[in-house]
């Protein structure tokens, strides 16, 4: 039975639940195009008590006979996060119940939970969906050899993970994966960074992946990028476009680093910056 630990939104025939994987410690110093003092002030004014922490969310989608998970958290890699499986259990779901895992991209805090401590698939009955360009990037060992050690290690993890899932791995672009659930290409953070739009019975929700890492800062100042961005200029362009669309369309959004409770509406404008209004459980 789902408990009050979890916030859900009813989107037509689907219930979408924010499942925490815990937190990871980062640093405001990873941000560019903003002074650290200003960044800290935005966090303080937004009521953020741990300004250097980044929340990690995954999203559980249930309905139409499906049990779908978006992203898998860290799996406890680097002593960050790792709370997903326990929280799934508290929400009434076993890892074997998951029939599909949709991946926003290949960073460790999104794919780390796909393998258990023995290097075997955590979600034994699930099909895995990942953007084709994302997979190609992380599987190009020659290209990664020219990049940082962090990216090389990340690439090694991606390759081990994709190999472990073998025949149940499916590559996607911008297509419908299940009735009312469509992949949306959101490039910049990684080459194949992908969101997922859920549309059912005239209701919609965009799970936008890593459009923001520090939500209050990057909504107020969309030009601010983080060092994890593969293409900061493209990430900025994508972020501005999505924030503008979400504000204009009054679109409910969810994001892996959105912060509690995991769902929000966007208000504001490109000229004056945007702000996020948290959205609690929908009755």
Descriptive tags:
283 residues, alpha+beta, Metallo-beta-lactamase, Chain A, seven-stranded mixed beta sheet
Describe the structure.
The chain has helices spanning 36-45, 84-90, 108-111, 132-139, 141-144, 149-165, 215-220, 232-249, and strands spanning 7-11, 14-25, 31-32, 53-63, 66-70, 100-102, 127-131, 169-172, 176-178, 181-185, 194-200, 203-207, 225-226, 252-254, 263-269, 273-278. By secondary structure, it is of the alpha+beta class. It has a single domain (7-278), classed as Ribonuclease Z/Hydroxyacylglutathione hydrolase-like (Metallo-beta-lactamase, Chain A), CATH 3.60.15.10. Strands 1-2-4-5-6-7-8 form a 7-stranded mixed β-sheet. Strands 9-10-11-12-14-15-16 form a 7-stranded mixed β-sheet. The protein has a two-stranded antiparallel sheet with strand order 3-13. Strand 11 and strand 12 form a beta hairpin. Helix 4 (132-139) packs across helix 6. The longest helix is centred in the last third of the chain and has 18 residues, at 232-249.
Give the total of beta strands: 16
Helix amount? 25-40%
Give the overall pLDDT as a whole number. 95
Q: Provide the β-strand percentage band.
A: 25-35%
CATH homologous superfamily (4th level) name: Ribonuclease Z/Hydroxyacylglutathione hydrolase-like
The value of Rg in angstroms is 18 Å
Could you describe the largest sheet, including whether it forms a barrel?
7 strands, mixed
CATH architecture: 4-Layer Sandwich
Q: Please state the structural category.
A: alpha+beta
């Amino acid at each position: 039975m789902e408990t009050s630990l979890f916030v859900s939104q009813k989107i037509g025939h689907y219930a979408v639940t924010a499942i925490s994987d815990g937190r990871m410690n980062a640093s405001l110093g990873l941000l560019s195009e903003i002074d650290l003092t200003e960044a800290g002030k935005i966090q303080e004014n937004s009521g953020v008590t741990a300004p250097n922490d980044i929340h990690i969310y995954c999203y559980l989608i249930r309905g139409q006979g499906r049990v779908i998970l978006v992203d898998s958290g860290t799996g406890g890699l680097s002593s960050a996060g790792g709370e997903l499986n326990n929280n799934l259990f508290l929400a009434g779901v076993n890892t074997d119940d998951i029939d599909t895992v949709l991946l926003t991209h290949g960073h460790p805090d999104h794919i780390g939970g796909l393998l258990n401590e023995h290097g075997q698939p955590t979600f034994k009955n699930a099909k895995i969906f990942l953007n084709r360009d994302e997979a190609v990037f992380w599987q190009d060992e020659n290209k990664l050899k020219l990049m940082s050690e962090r990216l090389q290690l990340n690439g090694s993890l991606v390759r081990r993970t994709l190999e472990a899932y073998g025949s149940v791995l499916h590559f996607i672009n911008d297509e419908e994966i299940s009735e009312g659930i469509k992949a949306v290409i959101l490039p910049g953070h990684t080459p194949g960074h992908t969101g997922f739009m859920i549309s059912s019975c005239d209701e919609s929700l965009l799970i936008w992946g890593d459009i923001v890492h520090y939500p209050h800062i990057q909504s107020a100042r969309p030009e601010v990028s983080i060092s994890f961005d593969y293409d900061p200029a493209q990430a900025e362009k994508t972020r501005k476009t999505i924030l503008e669309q979400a504000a204009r369309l009054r679109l409910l959004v969810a994001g892996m680093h959105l912060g509690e409770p995991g769902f929000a509406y966007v208000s504001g404008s490109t000229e004056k910056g945007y702000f996020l209004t948290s959205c609690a459980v929908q009755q």
